[in-house]
Amino acid sequence: MYNFEYTSPSSVDEAAAAVAAGGQVLAGGQTLLATMKQRLAAPETLVDLGKISGLSGVKKDGNSIVIGAMTRHMDVANSDVVQANIPALAALAGQIGDRQVRARGTMGGSVANNDPAACYPSAVLALNATVHTNKRTIAADDFFQGMYTTALEDGELITAIAFEIPKRAAYVKFKQPASRFAMVGVFVAELASGPRVAITGAASSVYRQADMEKALAGNFTAAALDGVAVSAKGLNADLHASADYRAQLVKVVAQRAVTAAA
Ligand SMILES: Cc1cc2nc3c(=O)[nH]c(=O)nc-3n(C[C@H](O)[C@H](O)[C@H](O)COP(=O)(O)OP(=O)(O)OC[C@H]3O[C@@H](n4cnc5c(N)ncnc54)[C@H](O)[C@@H]3O)c2cc1C
């Protein structure tokens, strides 16, 4: 570690001003502190969102479940409202990392970070969520822009995320056994507008699988995906899995997710 300034504002406006002045947001620290220790990040000022009231919590609003950016993974997993309305989202949160990570890590931190193997981005995309920031709202389809890259502008903070309540949904993750991040994770949802399938872990950023969505429209069964070919082109290859293996996993895990949802 090295020296840095620490500030703990009490409002979103104060936090945004501190970030505009060059600070970096600190949420649960589960990614940021590790990257600082590894000297992959060297912010001069940390802007801790932990003391801002109103940034955590879960509420139902019409056909949406709105979750504050600072809501911890364990609080999403244990929320009666999430369990009753989007059980797949509660189950996803309960599978993130280990108990310690779930006790500190936040939804806003995970979604802002957009790690290619993170779980929440697949739920944001499959559940047609809306990302609320201190400046605007951003549709899920416009939010994730590439590896660790999102539509957030400098000085823009996520304040909450609103998830559409699906008719049915499931998240299935084939875990990287050491970290429990997704080697491949698939979130499937049947919304009023039709099925959505989001894949994480397989490519440089989370993405929707259009061929699967087409196949599931009107036939929401695992068998409907039998004829969908998944190409390895552009998929990640690393010491854990080749691109071909990940392509195979995308199909198998998607079929398991559809079976779980149905
Ligand atoms: C051992 C281990 C296992 C893990 N396993 C999994 C897993 O299985 N699945 C999974 O999905 N994740 C996993 N994670 C990651 C975990 O979910 C982190 O909590 C998450 O990536 C970051 O959230 P955080 O609140 O800790 O954010 P921080 O580390 O505090 O911040 C992360 C980044 O987001 C920015 N940021 C934070 N909050 C906001 C905001 N409200 N607005 C704008 N920018 C913001 C920060 O500036 C920083 O750049 C794991 C982490 C560890 C250490």
CATH level-3 fold name of the domain at 168-261: Enolase-like, domain 1
Q: What is the N-to-C order of secondary-structure elements (H for helix, E for strand)?
A: EHEHEEEHHHHHHEEHEEEEEEEHH
Mean pLDDT: 96
Strand residues, percent? 15-25%
Cofactors, ions and other ligands in the entry = flavin-adenine dinucleotide
Unreliable stretches (pLDDT < 50, length at least 5) are none
Q: What is the spatial order of strands in the main beta sheet?
A: 4-5-10-6-7
Helical run tally:
11
Tell me how many strands there are. Answer: 14
Q: Can you tell me the CATH superfamily of the domain at 168-261?
A: CO dehydrogenase flavoprotein, C-terminal domain
C-alpha geometry = globular
Distance between the amino and carboxyl termini: 48 Å
- Going by CATH, the architecture of the domain at 168-261 would be 2-Layer Sandwich
> What is the C-level CATH assignment of the domain at 168-261?
Alpha Beta
Radius of gyration: 18 Å
Helix share bin:
25-40%
Biggest β-sheet: count, sense, barrel?
A: 5 strands, antiparallel
- Counting helices, strands and paired strands, the structural category is alpha+beta
